[in-house]
Specification:
It is a multi-pass membrane protein. It is found in: Membrane. It is built from ten helices and eight strands. It has 320 residues and is of the alpha/beta class. An eight-stranded mixed β-sheet has the order 7-5-6-4-1-2-3-8, sandwiched between helices. Helix 5 runs parallel beside helix 8 and helix 9 packs antiparallel against helix 10. The structure holds uridine-5'-diphosphate and magnesium ion (MG). Uridine-5'-diphosphate (UDP) binds next to strand 1 and helix 3.
């Protein structure tokens, strides 16, 4: 009987400075695996530097390594999804390309998987080398998300995790476009456990998550896992209407029972601008959900692959 297969999925975007070291570390790690076969699945997410050429070389030289090269940059979560589609493993590990997540931790993940857990997610106890801004926004984001989301999503947990085949198949059967993978895994259920680990500094290069991508990612997380913003906008609208009602009662009472009337532009302008603002915000929230519905109904493929390397026939992974 053959050994179970472990797939390690690595999304890469403009990582030429780290990719050589990453593949060395991962290969060294895999070589030390006993009674497990392995494959390394790299996804080149439309890098504009030498990443793709480097990955190609690595994949051609080693039958354990596969490369899926996207036609353009589709984003981290989509790259991870493509890796899950292509991985054949009985267990699949997601890991970043920048060595912030130490490969050695996978040993403990595998041990817990063998104990019967379907998901082992790494929880960051320490994050050296990240800006105070990133740390505090990340902290706030995970807590807010957890408050809003309908399924509990573990705090301070990234995509570094091991998943059993069962869980991967559930994720692959979820057709949604806005893919917030860590939330989708929570949604799937099964036996999940956390594994605390200290996150290292990026090996080289800089973060591929500029503020704009971070905001997009956070919005995706919240809007894909909660409809509370919609309820919130109803609440804000009701509050504004209640305030206006109080204003009316006040104005009428003054008019009927005193000689001083409410007058002036200021109050009027404030009321109009306030209501206008509230309305626009609520319409904006609606629009965000609408836009998501729109992109769902277009039913475009999630990603476009330019090239598969390391698969028999070069035509990509056979359906598993
Ligand atoms: N990444 C990707 N596509 C993107 C942005 C990032 O595949 O559009 C990959 C990147 O190469 C890395 C992982 O996602 O392997 C996490 O990115 P990064 O380390 O820059 O994020 P941070 O750790 O700073 O949050
Ligand atoms: Mg990183």
């Amino acid at each position: 009987m053959s050994n179970p297969l472990l797939s390690i999925v690595v999304p890469c975007y403009n990582e030429e400075e780290v990719i050589g070291e990453t593949s060395r570390r991962l290969k060294a790690f895999c070589a030390g695996l006993t009674d497990l076969d392995y494959e390394l699945v790299f996804i080149d997410d439309g890098s504009r530097d030498g990443t793709r050429a480097l990955l190609k070389e690595i994949a051609m030289a080693d039958p354990h390594v596969r490369l899926i090269a996207f036609a353009r940059n589709f984003g981290h979560q989509i790259a991870v999804s493509a890796g899950l589609d292509a991985a054949h493993g009985d267990a699949v590990v997601l890991i970043d390309a920048d060595l912030q997540d130490p490969p050695e931790v996978i040993h403990q993940m595998v041990a817990l998987w063998r104990e019967g857990y379907d998901v082992v997610y790494g929880t960051r106890t320490d994050r050296p080398g990240e800006s105070a801004f990133k740390l505090s926004t990340a902290r706030t984001f995970y807590r807010l998300l957890n408050k809003l989301s309908d399924v509990p999503i573990p705090l301070d947990t990234g995509d570094f995790r091991l998943m059993s085949r069962k869980v991967v198949d559930v994720l692959r059967a979820m057709p949604e476009r806005d893919r917030f993978v860590r939330g989708m895994v929570s949604w799937a259920g099964f036996r999940q456990t956390s594994l605390p680990y200290a996150r290292a500094e990026r090996f080289a290069g800089e973060s591929k998550y500029p503020l704009k991508k971070m905001i997009r990612f956070a919005t995706d997380g919240i809007l894909s896992f909660s409809s509370k913003p919609l309820q919130l906008s109803i609440g804000v609208g009701m509050t504004a209407a209640a305030l206006a009602l109080l204003g009316i009662v006040y104005a009428v009472a003054l008019r009927l029972f005193t000689n001083i009337w409410v007058e002036g532009w200021t109050a009027l302008m404030i009321a109009v601008l306030f209501l206008g603002g509230v309305q626009l915000v609520c319409v904006g929230i609606l629009g965000e959900y609408m836009g998501r519905v729109y992109s769902e109904v277009k039913r475009r493929p999630l990603y476009v692959v330019d090239e598969y390397i390391g698969y028999a026939g070069g035509s990509g992974p056979a359906a598993s």
